[in-house]
Design brief:
S-adenosyl-L-methionine, 530 residues, TIM Barrel, Methyltransferase_Class_B, Rossmann fold, 21 helices, six-stranded parallel β-sheet, seven-stranded mixed β-sheet, transferase, rSAM, 3 domains, 43% helix, alpha/beta
Length: 530
């Protein structure tokens, strides 16, 4: 059986990691002896013509796609186009949005055959061998599908208790070199589950309230494989990495024992961190800890069931300063009961903490407590256009704050940063910037160029000339296609070649596919240790 799995487009400006969940899905399908191909439309464009060509090269029996809420509309469009091209190919969908909006998706999208709910690996282990036998689907737990009288939900699938039984994510199916060109970190998980009940979050419902951990040696084996792939920055994407201090200690000990040198970052909570733990993490290579603080108003924190206090936030930030750990705080605008006073207190608390921070607008995603119990809050949901659920613009109003005021508040908070960035760019342009400022401007300029190349597949479009050095021709062509200065394009293209991220093959430039690493993944290097 041939299965194509699709990662739908996601804004490159949001610094996406290689799609970890989809790689776990691919591994689960491969474990059932399916042939699997991933189409990653995060770092490459899609169109009906591209989809048709991919299907000609690898005719699928089954097409699977994932989505978060903001990517769901385009994911469904891809499925509709796919079914026009291959009318009899089975199509399924998974991910958080599909899990909590399954009935609407199946009712509104006839091209979609079924939905894998929640944590999908164990469900796929049963489903893949029986995908061609729809009569059996209702006997498989963890699915939503159409029945004679409407959408049918099969029994709930128990969560996987031993995460070490999972095959490691099949990243070898991804266009890894494209992500490495961007320089974004690659994500892993060391656990699943979140014991907290924040009303705006899906974590607890998606992966359970009890935190289940992977063994430290298995996680570090995976890290060694990622380092062998050429990654040097890893983001630990656990909902709560510091849920168990002893497990963090064991993980850090394993890294130090093996002498691994790499940078990593985590998400934490201010009530689960201390200076001792931060020191151990820093010694093992951790460079950044992100905290979801959400509000500077104690009443708001209670209302959204955040389960933290402002004093705990102060103590966590102080511990980061004491240990030299880079800290980042995330705040949310538009929470239930938001007023001018709560916004003012949040901004004041942000200023008091004095660390890197950012704002997101509340998005009441399907499945969240705030959306399901919206009548209990002084809040109006303004739209269910999922494309707007990117947390970068307001989709709600409260009795005390309009969406226009929310937008103005965030713009005011960011104004000093934008002004500072403009001054830095002007100083660098005038040849007066510091070395650090020059590196920041250079990095931003490089990223914008790579964005342009990836979003339009310009590397493939560039071609070569029989009368000119291939690399020089490539640089000049990229300059023409992007409007970037030719010398800078030459600098970046030479860097990509030097890092073996692009190669000249059969008279054209292509992104490297790292065959040696793929071989290692398929043999023993990244397999679960016995």
């Amino acid at each position: 059986m041939r299965i194509i799995l699709i990662a739908p487009p996601y804004p490159l400006q949001q610094a996406p990691s290689p799609p970890l969940g989809l790689c776990y899905v691919a591994a689960a399908c491969l474990a059932q002896k399916a042939e699997v191909k991933i189409l990653d439309f995060i770092v490459s464009p899609w169109s009906p013509e591209i989809l048709r060509k991919e299907f000609e090269d690898f005719p699928p029996d089954v097409i699977g796609i994932t989505a978060v809420t903001m990517t769901a509309p385009e994911a469904l469009e891809i499925i509709r186009v796919a079914r026009k091209i291959r009318p009899h190919t089975l199509c399924f969908m998974g991910g958080p949005h599909a899990t909590f909006d399954a009935e609407n998706l199946l009712n509104d999208t006839p091209e979609l055959d079924l939905i894998v709910l929640g944590e999908g690996e164990a469900t796929l282990a049963e489903l893949v061998p029986r995908l061609q036998d729809p009569e059996c689907w209702q006997d498989i737990a963890g699915l939503a599908l159409r029945g004679k009288d409407g959408v049918v939900f099969t029994p709930e699938r128990p969560l996987i208790q031993d995460l070490d039984t999972l095959p490691l994510p099949s990243r070898h199916l991804l266009p890894i070199s494209r992500y490495q060109a961007l320089g974004f970190p690659v994500s892993i998980i060391t656990s699943r589950g979140c014991p907290n009940g924040c009303i705006f979050c899906l974590g607890r419902r998606m992966v359970g309230a009890k935190v289940r951990h992977r063994s430290a040696d298995l996680v570090v084996n995976e890290i060694e494989g990622l380092l062998a792939m050429g990654f040097s920055y890893i983001n630990i994407a656990d909902d709560l990495f510091t849920a168990n201090a002893r497990r963090v200690e064991v993980f850090c000990e394993e890294i130090r024992k093996r002498g691994l040198i790499f940078s990593w970052s985590v998400f934490s909570r201010v009530n689960t961190i201390n200076a001792h733990l931060l020191r151990l993490m820093k010694e093992a290579g951790c460079v950044s800890v992100s905290f979801g603080i959400e509000s500077g108003c104690p009443d708001m924190l209670k209302r959204v069931k955040k389960g933290i206090t402002l004093d705990q936030a102060r103590e966590a930030v102080a511990a980061c300063r004491e240990t030299g750990m880079r800290a980042h705080a995330s705040f949310m605008v538009g929470l239930p009961g938001e007023t001018e006073e709560s916004l003012r207190r949040t901004q004041e608390f942000q200023d008091e903490l004095g660390i890197e921070s950012g704002y997101h607008f509340l998005c009441p995603f399907p499945g969240t407590t705030v959306r399901e119990n919206i009548k209990e809050y002084d809040m109006e949901i303004l739209t269910s256009d999922w494309r707007l659920y990117d947390a970068d613009s307001p989709v709600v109003r409260t009795e005390g704050v309009s969406p226009e005021r929310m937008t103005a508040f965030v713009e005011d908070c960011y104004a000093p940063l934008h002004a500072e960035w403009k001054v830095i760019q002007e100083r660098v342009a005038a040849g007066e910037g510091t070395e650090e400022e020059k590196l920041r401007v250079l990095g931003n300029r490089r990223m914008e160029l790579i964005f342009a190349i990836l979003s339009k597949d310009l590397l493939e479009e560039a071609g070569i000339s029989s009368e000119e050095d291939p690399l020089a021709f490539l640089s000049r062509t990229i300059s023409r296609l992007t409007g970037e200065e030719e010398g800078f394009c030459t600098f970046i293209m030479e860097d990509l070649v030097r890092k073996h991220l692009i190669v000249l093959a059969e008279n054209r430039w292509i992104w490297a596919d790292i065959p040696a690493v793929r071989g290692m993944q398929e043999d023993s290097g990244l397999k679960r240790s016995a």
